[in-house]
C-alpha cells in the first residue's frame, strides 16, 4: 500500500476526522477503529504484560506527517505527553522533503550478550582458550534457538576481553547474536546462560553475570538529510543552528538537553510500537559518551549551496516481533499505521524521526526560542487544568500567550472573567 504522508491541514481536523483519514490511508478494520476509540486496553492484556496490575495510564497517541525515508512515505505514530513534539517533527520532515527527505542505513541487527568470569588465575591465557573453542560454543548457543537460526539469525561470533576492576581482572565474553526482527533480549540471555558452564570449564573460573548489553554498538542506524536554507529561514538561521550544535558537542550540560530532544522523537515511536524505551535510551546515551566525553548524537554541516546537512548515528535495538510489541493491540496498530515490515526498517524510521526532532529544536532555539511554539500548546493544557472547556480553552490560552503570562493563577483569573464567576 502506497501512502502520501504530506497531509496539509491534518492538525486542523477533529480527533475523529484524523482517525478516519489515517484509517482510509492504511486500511483500518472495524476492530482497529474500536481499539482507537476505547478508553482502555482490555484488562486481560494488561494483566499479562506486567504483575500487580490495578489499571492503566493513558498517554496521547499522535501521528507525525510528512516523513519520506529512502524514497518511501511514512505516517509515524508517537506516544508522548509533551506539547509541540509531534508538530515539530512533522514540520522538520516537511522541510527535509524539499531536498528528497531522509536517507537511512543500518548495520546487521547484532546484539551483545555478556558473560562475566571471576576468579581466573591467568585471565589472558584463559581468554585465548575461550577463543580456541569458539566454533563449539557458537554451535551450542545456536542449538538453543533453532528458529532464530532458521531465519538467518543466531550467534555469529564470540569475543573476549580482560578488563580491570576495583575487585580483580575480569574475563568478559561477548557473544554476538544476530536477532533479525526481534529486539533479542530473550534469545541472547538464553544463549549466554546456556554456554556459561562451558566457559567455567574452559577457564576454571566462576561465571556470575550472563546478560544482554544495552550498548548495542553492533546494531547501529544512521540517517541523513539536507535541510533547505530558505525553508529554515535563511543563512543566519543555518549559522545559528551550527553554533547551537557546536555548543552541544562541546559541553555535556548542553548535550544532555540536545540529546533529550532527539529522544523526544525516538522514545515516542519506541513506546508507540511496544518496544523497550529504557533500553533504547540507555544505549543512546552510552553511545554519546563512547569517546570518553558526552557529546551530540547528531552532526550538522553547511554544504556548498548553503543548505544545512544533518546526520545521526546511534544504537537501535528495536523489534517488530515478540514482547509487548505482539502482546499490546495498540502497538500492533501503530506498526500497521507505520507500515514497516522489519526491525531494520523500524530503526531507520526511528533515527530519521530523532534527526527531525533535533533539527526542529535547534531551529527554534536559533530563532524564536524554544518556548514560543511550545508554550502555545502548553497554555491550552493550563487552561483545561483550571476547568475551562470547549472553545473557552482556546480563548484563555490565546489571551495568556498574548499577555505572556502563561500561569495557572492567570488562567484562573481569565476563567472567572470570561465566565462571569466571582
Characterise this structure:
Helix 11 (235-250) packs across helix 12 (252-272) and helix 17 (371-385) packs across helix 18. The longest helix is centred in the last third of the chain and has 24 residues, at 343-366. This protein has a four-stranded antiparallel beta sheet. A four-stranded antiparallel beta sheet has the order 5-6-4-7. Strands 1-2 form a two-stranded antiparallel ribbon. The protein has helices at 15-26, 30-37, 43-49, 85-97, 123-132, 134-143, 146-150, 185-194, 196-203, 229-232, 235-250, 252-272, 277-288, 323-327, 329-338, 343-366, 371-385, 391-403, 408-419, and strands at residues 61-69, 72-79, 102-106, 110-118, 154-163, 170-178, 206-213, 220-227, 298-302, 308-315. The chain is built from 19 helices and ten strands. It has three domains: 10-103 and 224-368, 3-hydroxy-3-methylglutaryl-coenzyme A Reductase, Chain A, domain 2; 110-213, Alpha-Beta Plaits; 372-419, Helicase, Ruva Protein, domain 3 (Orthogonal Bundle). By secondary structure, it is α+β, with helices and mostly antiparallel strands. Helix content is 51%, strand content 19%.
